Amino acid sequence: MPNKSSKAGGMASVKSTVNQLIKSKQVRRNMLNLYHANKHEGFDCPGCAWGDDKSGAFRFCENGAKAIAWESTSEKVDAAFFAQHTVSELRKQSDHWLESQGRLVEPLRYNAQTDKYEPVSWEQAFTHIANGINALQSPNELELYTSGRASNEASFLYQVFGRALGTNNFPDCSNMCHEASGIALKRAIGVGKGTVTLKDFDAADTIFVFGQNPGTNHPRMLNALRSAAKRGATIVSFNNLKEVGLQRFASPQKPAELLGLQAVDISARYYTPKLGGDFAVARGMAKVFIEELAEQLNQDFINTHTHGIDAYIEQVKATQWQDIETRSGLTRADITEAANLFVRSQKAITCWAMGITQHLHSVDTIHELTSLHLLTGAIGVPGSGMCPVRGHSNVQGNRTMGILEAPTQAFNQAMQAVFDFAPPEKPGHRVYDAIKALHAGQSKMLICLGGNIAAASADTAYTEQALRRTALMVNIATKLNRTHLAVGQDALILPCLGRTEADTTGGKNQAITVEDTFSMVHASSGNTPPASDLLKSETEIIARIAQYTLKERIALDWESLIADYSNIRELIAKVIPGFDNFNAQIQQPGGFHLYNSAANLQWNTASGKAEFNAVALPEALFPDSVQSKIAQQDSPVFTLQTLRSHDQYNTTVYGMNDRYRGVFGERQLVFMHAEDMRLLGLTDNSLVDISTIWDDDTERKVTQFRAMSYDIPQGNVACYYPETNPLIPFESVGLASATPTSKSVPVVISHSES
Ligand SMILES: Nc1nc2c(c(=O)[nH]1)N[C@H]1C(S)=C(S)[C@@H](COP(=O)(O)OP(=O)(O)OC[C@H]3O[C@@H](n4cnc5c(=O)[nH]c(N)nc54)[C@H](O)[C@@H]3O)O[C@H]1N2
Ligand SMILES: Nc1nc2c(c(=O)[nH]1)N[C@H]1C(S)=C(S)[C@@H](COP(=O)(O)OP(=O)(O)OC[C@H]3O[C@@H](n4cnc5c(=O)[nH]c(N)nc54)[C@H](O)[C@@H]3O)O[C@H]1N2
Ligand SMILES: [Mo]
Question: Which residues form the Molybdopterin dinucleotide-binding domain (predicted)?
Fold first, then answer.
């Protein structure tokens, strides 16, 4: 069991940060790096998408420091390394080992005869890619994946390139992440982004945090929560697990608190619903609003700004408390208390992350949370609104730049006006469709602008099979990972600069731009010497691939775009709304804020109003066909969530500890309720196998995991991602979002066989 008195932040956090930096043997360079992180004229921290406060103080967090140290390592995987190891050998290594070997330093091509990656020149690499693409029968045989670290400039050129070729196949990491948030918010309030900014956290009376672990994944968010708690705002957490960071937090940046003397209690209320129980929680809160607190609802707001209230009220009234309690795992009293906290406050913010987005019913759940704000008018006024807390540092910007499988007509028209080609209208692929198409041999080529799709996507065996069927796979990356090893016939690795490194082209250090979770767009420029002279920026790599492939098919002066990224920003300003005077706007400290229609009470929905969603509470977490399989099992079926430890960044595993959860030196763990363990005859040292229950005949199993008793609702279990991605059935995706249901997988647990 984790230590009850432990708290996030404080001395332990600082020590761990410093240890991490020292271990990387680059202390000076890293401290310089940290000093420049998230400051005007420095680089944007590659850690997470939380916004920056503009106090100018030395700002960093432990996990940002780890991300920077990991990128700044002096270890290298060079030609000698690849001469030593075949790809088949490397595939046997762990994700942690692979990335620990160091930075990629030169372009490489896979040789199927020797089963090794071998150095090639950039010229050869670009020519080979262009030949590969131009040999495809249709541009729709190409998949263009983006991971959310890519800059606005690189992702804008990437989508220009894809659309000039004629495809909308832009699968991206947000398909596995906040896709449901974008869809639900667009449907409910007409804009697929959050409506608040960091300033709203200073004005809110109540802040709800659903399905999120900011202590680990957005540590700088704790500063905002901590200040809010200190000035008397009420923070209410809904989380399957009692996460330490949401309970007590000491800021590692305030000297007095370094000693942990003034740790602040963050959450005034902490509810632990069942996995996937949040729809029922929100529905229950709506029921209390409507049936018990009707006089406190904002009738003016409802009448002026919303559509569909009558049908919604009918649905809410028809939902029975018994169903709400069973599905949420909370009592009517708990939900009534939370509803009162919401309604009593004039200003409420709702934050959420993967605990909400990675389920079958995520889109409706997020719509239901939004309805609470529509009933009370807690949106579009200071201190109120919706806050999906994005993951990757520029994942929101990628989408703004046009990394979308189904762009709007307005977007296509703007593209045509600027680039003089007709962009494809046929919707393209998300991650789910892309992997399926590769698996079926309909798509033949994959380019990955960062990321690690092999490990990040669900159903590892199926995904790897799909990747191994590619005729050509191209990975633009900083570190070696599992995707690079899932080679088919032919593959290239193109090594790129990281966020922290100086990007010098055209005789000057270039800046790129990013957009944070609050729609703030700002510049970022690296300051450390690149890990190798052979590295190129992502921006240049994309521009060169486009230049070599498209030749005179598009009249763009690629050289001038590569020599000066402000020329790319001029193009962005012409195509993407809100980016007028882009180059001038990023000169302001902190950058500029993109207009948000819903925050200004304008509703870009079909009805022109914010929409209620009159749907019934779903019967179960899984589709009917799976429920009937579950009913046939002799042993208990648990719901598994897959989550992050404190020592990882998505598929990048920095270390084997998860300090805040009391875990040291291991990752093959399953967190279980003590009573569930007792029923299965397990103790804290038992080794177990975990198998998925699904409606197909595929066996999905992981073996030799250690059971660990934990404060988790009975019937729910938790394991780390990506080790348990093999358990997530490929077809187990969210309705409308197609996001893998990484937070609800039906499993059985048995003693390990050997
Ligand atoms: N250091 C670090 N920072 C990161 C990342 C990283 O890996 N490491 N990843 C980045 C990315 S891409 C993202 S998307 C974010 C992810 O940020 P998070 O969403 O915080 O990440 P997870 O670890 O998936 O945590 C999910 C949380 O939701 C809870 N939860 C799970 N299921 C449910 C549920 O059904 N209901 C409720 N109420 N709670 C539930 C879990 O107990 C856990 O606390 O972080 C970003 N920042
Ligand atoms: N089971 C389960 N699966 C999940 C999730 C979950 O909670 N549970 N979460 C999902 C979520 S929220 C996300 S966002 C996805 C993440 O999916 P991805 O974004 O695809 O994965 P990452 O692990 O972030 O990518 C790590 C790799 O990116 C490369 N890299 C790092 N920095 C740079 C850079 O600056 N440039 C370039 N070009 N490459 C770089 C390195 O080679 C590194 O190996 O995973 C999803 N998968
Ligand atoms: Mo994410």
Answer: 638-731
